[in-house]
Q: What sequence folds into this?
């Protein structure tokens, strides 16, 4: 192993260098027209991203967090409601729920895909809730509050198993809002519909982040809501602009959640490349899978479910020696990440809640053992070989201890 090898966790410099003239032209065009907020760049992105996601509508906003917050509110989540999600996600998921006035509650994950376990979701609804057929409301018994929505997180670029989630939502009259912030272009095969569905087209609405490191990332902050519901789209557009559909006429109190024109224009340029970039990530994932096969006993590659076409926003391995492996890779000049080291139910921010260690053992176990390897469009075979050689060296040295 070459000790001075430098392999970044993500390489945004090379990606942007290849399209720099087009990106700079966006800046020039916006500056010349002074159309900094809204206008044709934002409208163009909304149209094109909706088409990419195979959704009817798209509303550009200033972050993935606002996208989820606005989508929840626009879809009908009310203050005092409970919204179900998973504890192994970035805190933005639960921040959006709380900022919409609701209370997050958790269901544990499938340890294979790291996404919400639909069987545990069913158990939660059957054992911890009571459904009032007269009112059509599902009440969480311990808190005596209505459960009104589910936010399945399509973690690491792989969609959750949506068919059973949607069936449970229909049975219990729940809203489904996809957290697709890591899943731009991911697909799910619905047996019920007998076809592939794109992330962002399955639930009542979906939230996307355009944070720079995403598969489709802005050169700053950005986000979007996709939906097939015209009223959800309209309400989301009102919420992002101070509650206004017409300047100075305010239907409700809203937010300053607009997407600026320069970011929208840059995203339009990058969207043209997204399908190819996703294929590069998939190809890199297949190479990692093959290179890691000999180390299956000590380092496990991620599993792509049969219903899934993942886009590998992250390539996450699992090992009981995670911290030692990360240190070894760091010393070898290889960048890594941990997504996420502390499940949300154990975060200090939620210490006032009733959650405790042991409540969600699968999420807790994953948090102690997962490690994200370098993954980005343009990752080379030679770079991947260096990464897996370093992992092999580590596994061999650990086996002799």
A:
């Amino acid at each position: 192993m070459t000790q001075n090898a430098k392999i970044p966790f993500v390489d945004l410099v090379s990606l942007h260098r290849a399209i720099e003239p087009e990106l700079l032209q966006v800046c020039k065009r916006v500056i010349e027209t002074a159309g900094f907020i809204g206008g044709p760049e934002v409208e163009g992105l909304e149209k094109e991203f909706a088409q990419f996601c195979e959704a009817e509508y798209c509303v550009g906003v200033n972050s993935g967090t606002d996208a989820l917050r606005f989508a929840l509110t626009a879809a009908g989540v009310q203050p005092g409601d409970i919204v179900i999600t998973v504890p192994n996600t970035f805190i933005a998921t639960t921040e959006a729920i709380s900022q919409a006035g609701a209370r997050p509650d958790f269901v544990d994950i499938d340890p294979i895909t790291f996404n919400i376990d639909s069987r545990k979701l069913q158990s939660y609804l059957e054992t911890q809730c009571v459904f009032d057929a007269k009112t059509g409301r599902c009440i969480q018994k311990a808190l005596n509050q209505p459960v009104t929505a589910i936010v399945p997180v399509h973690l690491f670029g792989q969609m959750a198993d949506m068919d059973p989630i949607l069936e449970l939502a229909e049975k219990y009259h729940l809203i489904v809002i996809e957290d697709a912030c890591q899943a731009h272009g991911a697909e799910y095969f619905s047996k019920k519909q007998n076809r592939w569905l794109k992330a962002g087209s399955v639930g009542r609405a979906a939230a996307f982040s355009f944070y720079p490191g995403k598969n489709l990332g802005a050169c700053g902050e950005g986000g979007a809501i996709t939906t097939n519901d015209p009223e959800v789209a309209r309400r989301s557009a009102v919420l992002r602009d101070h509650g206004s559909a017409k300047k100075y006429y305010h239907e409700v109190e809203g937010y300053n959640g607009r997407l600026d024109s320069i970011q929208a224009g840059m995203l339009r340029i990058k969207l043209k490349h997204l399908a190819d970039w996703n294929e590069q990530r998939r190809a890199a994932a297949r190479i990692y899978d093959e290179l890691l096969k000999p180390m299956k006993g000590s380092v496990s590659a991620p599993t792509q479910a049969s219903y899934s076409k993942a886009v590998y926003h992250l390539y996450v391995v699992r090992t009981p020696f995670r911290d030692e492996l990360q240190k070894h890779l760091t010393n070898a000049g290889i960048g890594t990440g941990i997504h996420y080291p502390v499940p949300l139910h154990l975060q200090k921010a939620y210490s006032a809640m009733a959650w405790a260690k042991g409540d969600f053992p699968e999420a807790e176990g994953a948090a102690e053992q997962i490690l994200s390897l370098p993954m980005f469009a343009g990752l080379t075979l030679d770079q991947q070989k260096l990464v897996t050689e370093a992992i092999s060296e580590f596994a061999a040295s650990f086996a002799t201890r």
Remarks:
- The longest helix spans residues 261-292.
- The chain has twelve helices and 16 strands.
